[in-house]
Design a protein that fits this description.
It is a single chain. This protein has helices at about 1-10, 25-30, 40-50, 75-85, 90-95, 95-110, 115-120. It is mostly helical. It folds into two domains: about 1-35, no CATH class; about 40-120, no CATH class. Helix 3 packs across helix 4 (about 75-85) and helix 3 packs across helix 6. The chain is elongated. The model has no long low-confidence stretch (mean pLDDT about 80).
Length: about 130
């Protein structure tokens, strides 16, 4: 499928993610470059999670984060992201984007549960 897309749409810019190395002569022919993507750091993980959930998160539901007790930044959104980055649920994703998006789906599926409650209920999550 990738070969057909690259052949038929030569001007198309395409990003392919794979858990194994993709070997294709067409990728080399059309200027493809492999990049190894690592895991996200906790801050970027928290940012990705916040962009994929459909409800607002408050500091009140992040009390199991070690940073919840003190203000990390004068900007409320920045502070919330930093506290969320230290939360156990974010740590369990290990910075893997697929795990972060799966966590966002779980949060969206249980809109009344706080993140602390989800962390307790799903201690073996991910």
């Amino acid at each position: 499928m990738v070969h057909n897309v690259l052949t038929n749409y030569f001007a198309l810019k395409l990003i392919i993610t794979a858990t194994t190395y993709v070997v294709s002569d067409r990728l080399q022919t059309y200027g493809g470059s492999p990049y190894s993507l690592g895991c996200f750091d906790p801050y970027r993980s928290a940012d990705l999670l916040r962009r994929h959930i459909s409800r607002k998160i408050s500091l009140a539901e992040l009390q199991s984060s070690p940073l919840a007790a003190k203000i990390q930044s004068p900007n409320p959104q920045e502070n919330l992201t930093r506290v969320l980055a230290a939360h156990p649920l974010i740590e369990r994703t290990r910075g893997i984007p697929k795990a972060i998006v799966s966590l966002a789906s779980l949060i969206n599926a249980t809109p009344t549960a706080s993140l602390d409650q989800l962390a307790e209920q799903h201690s073996n999550l991910l």
